[in-house]
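Backbones bend. We report:
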Amino acid sequence: MDDISRISAFMLEMDRLKGVLRKTRPLAVDRRENSAEHSWQVALLATMLASYSTQSIDVARAVEILLVHDVPEIVIGDVIVYADEDPERQQAEARAARDLFGMLPEPHATRCFDLWLEYEQRETPESRYAYAIDRLMPILHNLQQGGGTWREYGIELEQVLAINAVTGNALPEVWDQVRARVTVCFEEMAS
């Protein structure tokens, strides 16, 4: 298969990301968000909040990371961030990333896998920023929906603050505002 055919096949495979349903519900429709929508939205958000980052970042690279970070969900599905870490799932996700990105010709296959791995390892300013943005968008959805999936899945305030505290490392000013709103949201949910 020639390179253009391989890229075309990969892009058509990416269509399956639209069928991976997440726990979050978008505001405009009465259904669960899919992972393709999420990837697009966090990539856009990354361009908007870059000036709030504590470190100088390459925004284009952060966007590239966000555009590929959920690709393995095509094979393994989505798991709520508040679930316990599962080493077997992490291994399955790495295999799925290798297989899916392996559909591409070089150098694209290696580049996409390396971007995915960079997100997973969170050792660069761009990957830490991308991870913070990835954590932030579902919070914004939940806040707008009066607790949304936090309420639906019995998520406690302490869980939300602990799991999402990494946002404060990359975006402290943003996190300060959002954390305050999260606290108020949980107070309102309790009353």
Summary: The chain has one domain: 3-190. Residues 168 and 176 are 7 Å apart (CA to CA).
